[in-house]
Amino acid sequence: MSLIDTEAPKRFRFDYRGMHRYLLRLPGFGSRKVFGEQETVVSVLNCLRDAAQEHRFDVYAYCFLPAELVMIVRGKDDEARLKEFLSAFRAASSSAIAAKPGHSLWKKKYLERVLRKTEDTGRAVAEVFELPVKAGLAKTAAEYPLQGSFVFAGEEKRRR
Fold this sequence. Notes:
α1 runs antiparallel to α2. Helix content is about 30%, strand content about 20%. The protein has helices spanning about 40-55, 80-95, 120-130, 130-135, 155-160; strands at about 20-25, 55-65, 70-75, 110-115, 145-150. β2 (about 55-65) and β3 (about 70-75) form a beta hairpin.
């Protein structure tokens, strides 16, 4: 074997497995206000809870804005796979709300960011809960009803 490798160096590919924390922004399909109705949000939340349990993810924070869902999630163990979790959740929630034929509830692309080890989860959660205030949807985070956590029981009450 030669000391000089003539092949291009292999780049590290992140495999989205394990106990990583992610900030996710899932935009709804089209420019309409997908999450304007409580009934839609409840249906999507039920799908989120089921997918998170099945695919071993904790949902530290979720916030339904009119046209997108913003979340902080974390894999519970080394077998947790973000891509599979999101695929299952998006498919189930699209079916649950009976999206228009030929259209998904969600845009094809979404934004995800792996939180660094140095980033504080509590601070990230607080920033997600402040999104409705920044968007002018509520005066305080505590009064916005379409957000919460599956991990921090009573989080909404503590913010009031």
